[in-house]
Amino acid sequence: MAFLDFFKNILPISFLSNSFQNSTGMYKSLARQFDDLKAAILDGCDQLFIDTATWSLPIYEAEFAIQLVDQSNTAARRNNVMAMSRGGLGATPAAIKSILQAYGYSTNIVESFGTYTVTIQFVDTRGIPSNINDLQALMYRFIPGHLNLTWQFIYTIHYELEPFTHAQMEGRTYAYYETQLPT
């Protein structure tokens, strides 16, 4: 009850004494209402920004005509909305990189004009990203239909495992080491 403390600071002490119990109860009630109002205002302000939105995400998704492909959590849905908000930049390599950065991926975009192909190369993520279906659906919305879209993923190469001993890699499968390095 932050506002009750505020009332205690601005009102004379006689207003909050036991002889004015009805007034004290009223001040406590008002303080609770002001605290609730402040929380509601702060929550409303959070909904104005994609990075902090929670209950307003369906509104943003409807505005950008986003249909969820995967069962996404709140952070993934925010990334999706952020990427769509950046999508008005066209299908340039810089715009595609910006959209994928909204999802937290570093990529290289390679254009091959002779074959009408755009290749998205992941730079910092090993293996296939868990939300690849969302990424593919999003990219197919931005990249013109006459262009082929290809994806390149990074996997662990044998020479990257050479510095490690068998004892360090024991207990893990080959599939694990395709996308992870031993620690």
Protein architecture, described:
With 183 residues, the chain is an alpha+beta fold. Helices cover 49% and strands 13% of the residues. It is built from nine helices and three strands. A three-stranded mixed beta sheet has the order 1-2-3, with helices on one face. The longest helix is centred in the first third of the chain and has 27 residues. It is elongated.
Briefly characterize the structure.
It is built from nine helices and three strands. The chain has helices spanning 2-10, 21-47, 57-63, 74-85, 93-102, 132-142, 158-161, 166-169, 174-179; strands at 107-112, 117-126, 148-154. Helix 6 links the parallel strand 2 (117-126) and strand 3 (148-154).
Order of helices and strands: HHHHHEEHEHHH
Low-confidence segments: none
Mean pLDDT level: 82
Number of continuous helical runs: 9
Which overall shape is indicated by the principal axes computed on the Cα atoms?
elongated
Please give the radius of gyration in angstroms. Answer: 27 Å
Cα-to-Cα separation, first versus last residue: 49 Å
Strand content: 5-15%
Q: For the report, how would you describe the main beta sheet?
A: 3 strands, mixed
Question: Helix/strand-derived class?
Answer: alpha+beta
| Annotation, overall tally of beta strands | 3
